[in-house]
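dude i think i finally got it to work??
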Amino acid sequence: MKNKSLLSGLLLAAAAALLILTVNGFAQPTAETWQTLFNGKDLTGWTPKIKGYELGENFANTFRVENGILRVVYDGYEKFDNRFGHLFYQIPFSNYVLRVEYRFVGEQVPGGPGWAWRNSGVMIHSQSPATMAKDQDFPVSIEVQLLGGDGQHARPTGNLCSPGTHVVMKGKLITQHCTDSRSKTFHGDQWVTAEVEAHGFGRIIHRINGETVLEYEQPQLDPGDNDARKLIKDGNVALHGGYISLQSESHPVEFRKIEIRVLPE
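look at this
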């Protein structure tokens, strides 16, 4: 009887923990500890969506894991052909700190746009990949843009771009597509640590190598964007959370750490 009671108690506790984890469709805090989203072995928990292909089809093995590194590569492409891709984590989040370590390597694939040289990004507060059109370039989301230097000129990283979205910065609605951060420039193939701290519809902070480089708040859908307009329900444009994804934009990039610390609301 004691064993049965103990087993019942454990099952109830596990069910309660599961409910806490997924309240309102967003991951909820079970403990304020770092949890890895990338196991260093394979793409378990992640799903690719590449323009022109069905959800889950990893064209030319664009996203792969080798030697403990999550790599975004194009050795199976003859040319890029605007096949923008995103690798989505399996569940959405709302309040959290996300930390990635990344670096740019190699050469851009032929046909990649000039602006995409040493350019990638981490998308947050994103629409579900299941709601994306087959030929959609980018998910409606907030992008933490990652850029690499050319060895000479200033080129900040940890910038903000906003496909289908707007934000508020210093009390002003920001409608331009990209806003530069105040970060340093990182040349060559050095590893860089990027963090984004998100508080639902509240404040969002970008950090590079531990230094705060950009802040804004009130992420919201852009009613003037065709893809975003489909996501607006009853006139409510506020974004309280969403999916996380990593970009493929034609330049090889590597990630060796992807981890999250879920915050209380």
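The two ends are 40 Å apart (CA to CA).
im so relieved honestly
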